[in-house]
Design brief:
Order of helices and strands: HHHHHHHHHHHHHH
Distance between the termini: 71 Å
Number of helices: 14
Radius of gyration: 27 Å
Strand content: under 5%
Number of strands: 0
Structural class: mainly alpha
CATH class of the largest domain: Mainly Alpha
Length: 294
């Protein structure tokens, strides 16, 4: 073969795109992602199937597979016999009250720290941020003593107040990030129109803080909905117990029948899963905004 023909063949072969070298890494990446997704989804799948089985299937006959007999009656027993209706209502009441208090306190504190000029505002901001370094359960003894002296044990306030206090630091951090993005020219324009401090806050700042409402609300909900230690220690009245405490109580009541316990766990987990699936982007934005602006 002549030299010219060799050059033509080399040019022809080199002109084809070399995709084979990229396919293997891509296939490995997709396989790894699929495996990770299956590992992440499996606990949810196991919990759902667990809640619809009897003891024989749960403990040996059919641990992983779909139920042979779909026992929807487990949910009825968990709701009626286990009083899950009461616990679910209590958790919603506590979560809603905590979110409302945290939002109001966070908005007002962030407004004072970011929009008003006073000497100790930087030191006060650092003081609030110290709350992020305190583990929530490290203060269980002093909180218990304080609530006992105030006669607030076994009331809704016994958990609403601590939950709101420990959510405040993160709420201020998130609100500082969002409030720092609002132009100060709007404050000056509102002041020239006759608005005072409260007028600027309610008419200018609060309407523009809708994204912060979502992020602070989501974070606070995820923190107080699944909390067990405070609710278990500070509340002894069955009428006021929250959902995690109610699920824990079922393990003693249904020691030989675990189907209703699985149903109660599913009912307690579904709200958290729905919040994370539909609002996970907001959760990520809250931490990014706080890290950049806080």
């Amino acid at each position: 073969m002549s030299t010219g023909m060799k050059r033509i063949h080399q040019h022809t072969y080199s002109s084809f795109p070399r995709k084979s070298g990229k396919r293997i890494p891509n296939l490995l990446m997709y396989a790894g992602l699929i495996l990770w997704a299956l590992i992440s989804i499996f606990p949810v799948y196991w919990m759902l199937t667990f809640s619809l089985k009897n003891n024989a299937e749960i403990f040996g006959e059919n641990v992983i597979g779909l139920p042979k007999y779909w026992l929807w009656s487990n949910y009825t027993r968990a709701l009626n016999t286990g009083h899950m209706y009461v616990y679910f209502f209590n958790s919603i009441l506590v979560a809603a009250s905590t979110i409302l208090i945290t939002l109001i306190a966070s908005f007002m504190a962030s407004y004072a720290l970011t929009r008003l000029v006073w000497k100790a505002r930087k030191g006060m901001n650092k003081f609030f941020m110290l709350g992020l370094t305190i583990p929530i359960h490290a203060s269980i003894v002093p909180i218990y003593v304080t609530l006992s002296k105030l006669h607030l044990l076994s009331t809704y306030w016994a958990v609403i107040i601590p939950y709101s206090a420990f959510s405040l630091a993160m709420g201020i951090l998130i609100c500082n990030g969002f409030m720092g993005d609002i132009p100060y020219d709007l404050d000056e324009a509102a002041f020239l129109d006759g608005c005072g401090v409260w007028g600027i806050f309610f008419r200018v700042i609060v309407p523009l803080m809708a994204p912060a409402v979502a992020t602070v609300g989501i974070y606070t909900f995820l923190q107080c909905w699944n909390e067990l230690m405070f609710a278990n220690v500070f509340i002894s009245d069955d009428r006021i117990k929250t959902l995690p405490v109610g699920v824990q109580a079922l393990s003693g009541q249904y020691t030989t029948d675990w189907g209703p316990i699985g149903a109660a766990l599913t009912l307690a987990t579904i709200p958290t899963l729905l919040v994370y699936v539909f609002l996970s982007k907001r959760i990520q934005e809250s931490f990014i905004a706080g890290a950049v602006k806080g």
